[in-house]
Amino acid sequence: MRRKLWMLAGLGAIAGAITVLAAGGLNENMVFFLTPAELEARGVEVVDQPIRLGGQVKPGSVDWNPESAELRFVIGEENIEIPVESTGAPPSMFQPGMGVVVEGAYGNDGVFRATNLMVKHSNEYAPPEHAGDAGQVYKSLLEDS
Questions:
Q1: Does pLDDT of 5 surpass 80?
Q2: pLDDT value of residue 44
Q3: Of 33, 42, 103, 131, which is most buried by a Cβ count within 10 Å?
Q4: Are the C-beta atoms of residues 51 and 34 closer than 8 Å to each other?
Q5: Can you tell me the mean pLDDT for 95-113?
């Protein structure tokens, strides 16, 4: 009987250690997905934390400098606006008014510094409007490039 108690205590200690290690590892690797309203509500609580921020690119806010590869824009949601800074070329589908998800950190100065920029697009596929002879389309694409 005493031996079984020691075995149960040992198994309990091992299970507790595994739980603590798993929970600690999850916290370090966890990235929250927030909307601009949720980010603003959390305020300083999320400063310098890894975050994914999703929202709409505010029309007229995109400032792209190809020489320095600096991209600045505003992600908005209703009346909340979060300025975003990113380096590197934006995705080809990036444009004002569309949904994006940026991954990075929110700074004390109220600017979100993105290390990764992803464009959200519709799940519905639409064929190209110029559908016709595929061979001619591919040939014209090759000639244009």
A1: yes
A2: 86
A3: 103
A4: yes
A5: 92
